[in-house]
Amino acid sequence: MSSDKGQTEVRRVGIAGFGTVGQSVARLLCSGRYPNLLLTHIYNRNIQAKKVDWVPRRVVWTDRVEDVLDIGVDIFVELIGGLSPAKEWIEAAIIGGKSVVTANKQVIAKHGAELCTLVRQGGTALGFEAAVGGGIPMVRGIQQGLGSDHLIELVGVLNGTCNFIFDRMESAAVTMEEAVQEAQALGYAEADPSDDLEGLDAQAKIAILSAVGLRRPLTPTDIPTRTIKSVGQMEFRQADKLNYVIRQVSRVAVDNAQGDQVQALVTPALVPKSSRLGQVHGAENIIITRGKWGGESAFVGLGAGGEPTAIAVVGDLLSIAEDTGTSTAMRFPVSESTSRVSKECISRHYLRTPTVLSHGMNSVPDRLKRNGVEVEKTWQESQNSGQSFTLVLTGLASFSVIQETCGEVERDLKDGDQCVWLPILDESPKEH
Amino acid sequence: MSSDKGQTEVRRVGIAGFGTVGQSVARLLCSGRYPNLLLTHIYNRNIQAKKVDWVPRRVVWTDRVEDVLDIGVDIFVELIGGLSPAKEWIEAAIIGGKSVVTANKQVIAKHGAELCTLVRQGGTALGFEAAVGGGIPMVRGIQQGLGSDHLIELVGVLNGTCNFIFDRMESAAVTMEEAVQEAQALGYAEADPSDDLEGLDAQAKIAILSAVGLRRPLTPTDIPTRTIKSVGQMEFRQADKLNYVIRQVSRVAVDNAQGDQVQALVTPALVPKSSRLGQVHGAENIIITRGKWGGESAFVGLGAGGEPTAIAVVGDLLSIAEDTGTSTAMRFPVSESTSRVSKECISRHYLRTPTVLSHGMNSVPDRLKRNGVEVEKTWQESQNSGQSFTLVLTGLASFSVIQETCGEVERDLKDGDQCVWLPILDESPKEH
After folding, report:
1. Superfamily in which the B138-301 domain is placed by CATH
2. B294: distance to nearest CA of chain A, Å?
3. Is B145 within 8 Å of A315 when comparing Cβ atoms?
4. What residue ranges of chain A have pLDDT lower than 70?
5. InterPro entries from the entry (chains A, B) (predicted)?
6. Which residue of A lies nearest to B120 if distances are taken between CA atoms?
7. How close does chain A come to B67, measured CA to CA in Å?
8. Do A326 and B324 touch (CB under 8 A)?
9. Closest residue of A to B27, CA-based?
10. CATH class of the domain at A138-303
């Protein structure tokens, strides 16, 4: 350890991608608060249209990424998103001896181990705090703060867009389409919100947290991931009566029954109103950790938005400038193989189907019972349109048997009708 | 940056203090989970009585601290508590070229800046994550995770003992004396619980967080700090009716009106049931941060107990072993002077006095009004004993005017009777 560490050796920072987050990062870097971080380059396609007047004259505006990957930059900030060419640019920067900071969950979820190996070999740093949980320091909190614990479960709300949509459906009784439009108007959802609604965004994030928290790297696409699109106003009304709310939940846990397996899923679910998950509102995110020694901890905050995400990016930049930032890459587990994902999670479940089954057909409760699932409660509800629905609460059952039963039921329904299914995630038993 | 960082260079660890936390740290270090941390020395007074059989034979048991401060140890873990000789031992270790990890909130609150300067000069590391918030990585989360933000307020529940006591008084309707005894039986409170009940423990913790989060070092004893001992069952019943609960709250905030001043306090207070502070139960702790850019974030978890605290100690040890641990000391602001503390916090207030004022004396509401305080509501309540109390809710008023009024009222009361006063801390307006 040398004694001059932490001194203000100035690092030159180049940003690739000048969208919402890139602009917030630039604003922070130009605020005068960080004397050892000097913004020198901004890359974007069609850069002339992107220029702003609040950036100092010394900054080079360019639409050639080669300029930012050149020797004039010490730290490369990747904010273009998507798998390619982002991954190739990050690789080129590392090979060129630069440290890298990225908010790219897809690249880290899929190529994190590979990139971290490259970084270790080169002796630079890779920071990806901004890839998960926006402004909440989840990666640092889990990896360094709780790095000495033996974590056994991570469960959270990791997509601020879905949470905003559910919050609006719950509090303002709007339809999902209306809530999506509101989210788009406020900049919480993109023009094509599929990655959020289908759970792919949360899938990448929980895969990253599994690697850094449980040290179990997962192939993101192995994680059972369910759309939130089937959730309607009916679900919010029923959940409310049962003292639950609906959240898009991401979870990964060590499977005690199966040595190297993990349980993992991303799904809309009923969670108790009074639970930590139930109390996350608007664009907030939360991650709850359960550790063998430290019990339950939780990190909550704004999971989306340019400014919170920029805080995470600049936090990584500061760590690298102060030479304390290599740890992110250091603690990313590198293994040839990823852990196997168990699809056999067990919980209670909520099901809703149109009441259209004709005489002689199997009712949903009958089908469930025949598949060995206990039916706790069943009742009918009508929509304003007059359509009648059958609702069922089950006892404990595995996801696969419920999925199978829903499939059977849907084969009896007319096209477009569906069996809406939400697991009920009551709080796991606490360690203490 | 060298390329061999993060490799498993083994560090020899010596523990001074083999109480609850020391034993949990030793258990973790002997678990085989941390190949680069080697427990070599354990110091305690009367060491023969402390020996346990689950520690490897190589470990030196000693009642001479000089053995642990010797060259055979790389990292000195100070867990004896109290100001002296803990501070002198930490100094001796740093001067001797060792890194230090401590759970000692009193030493860091009072001497943190001085010790961090010493560490910087010597090029070693000082970790004190365990001094605040038990197993919750508050120091790291605030200092590194949110280090790029401009934090303007920190508010939390920082003493697990007081929170446990209040939780029991609320949920089991026991007296404070009974709750203290329960806490002692469970190991949450010491034989002499004064530091917890009088708020001195929380005072030291919020002083540390002010330094690392707001970069405003405070002299701990400057922080207005109020005992929880005056809080009775009557307060819990009234709070419940008003939809509040009672928590020992610690808060520090930048005072916008007064440039370099900060507002700071430790006090029992009414907080909304549905607020983050209100939802912290048992021995849990929470810190809520408000930042100019990142908005509101919160860290929650177990704030007391040997194992959670040991997680924080070993987390610091791992950071030092991986050479990423100097940052704690690096970011501790060193300044000749500490910030001034404003005593002019403003909130609504709850007051309770015995209804014993004779005709012609000023009633509490009258006194409040004469001192310029708006009275929102006043009512009478009787205890089982038949004693009658006058209760008052005020509008917004400064702490000093309420304190003054309580003083006036108490001069009219008979010895032993008091004016119970709790501020009502409704949630601060959120940034987003």
Report:
1. Dihydrodipicolinate Reductase; domain 2 (3.30.360.10)
2. 4
3. yes
4. 1-8, 324-332, 334-336, 357-361, 427-432
5. Asp/hSer_DH_NAD-bd, HDH_cat, HDH_CS, NAD(P)-bd_dom_sf
6. A3
7. 24
8. yes
9. A293
10. alpha beta
Probe site for chain A from B75, B293, B314, B430 (most A CB atoms < 10 A): B293
Pick the closest to residue A268 from A252, A244, A248 (CA basis). A248
Question: Which residues on chain A are in Cβ contact (under 8 Å) with B2?
Answer: 123
Does the beta-carbon distance from A122 to B34 stay under 8 Å? no
Selecting among B205, B343, B377, B430, the annotated active-site residue is: B205
Q: Minimal Cα–Cα distance from A292 to chain B, Å?
A: 9
Extents of the domains making up chain A: 138-303, 346-424
Longest dimension (CA), chain B: 83
Structure tokens at B421: 């006063």
Q: At what angle do helices B105-122 and B200-209 cross, to 10 degrees?
A: 30
Tell me the chain B residues in contact with residue A123 when contact means C-beta distances shorter than 8 Å.
1-3, 5
A370-421 pLDDT, tens digit per residue, is 999 999 999 999 887 888 999 999 999 999 999 999 999 888 888 878 899 9
Active site residue A414: no
Q: What is the pLDDT of residues B312-343, one digit of tens each?
A: 999 999 988 887 545 556 566 766 678 888 87
Search chain B and give the residue with CA nearest A290.
B301
Indicate yes or no: CB of A141 within 8 angstroms of CB of B146: no
Asked if A287 and A209 touch (Cβ cutoff 8 Å), the reply is yes
CA A367 to chain B, closest CA, distance in angstroms equals 41
Contact list in B for residue A152 (CB cut-off 8 A) is none
Structural element, H or E, at residue B306: helix B306-321
Q: Which comes out higher in pLDDT, residue B255 or A76?
A: A76
Q: How far apart are CA B277 and CA B264, in angstroms?
A: 17
Assess: ipTM above 0.85.
yes
Q: Find the range with the poorest average confidence among A254-263, B13-22, B230-239, B385-394.
A: A254-263
Q: Which fold has domain B346-424?
A: Alpha-Beta Plaits (3.30.70)
From A5, A110, A205, A414, active-site residue: A205
Looking at residue A363, what is its pLDDT?
84
What is the rounded average pLDDT of the residues B242-269? 91
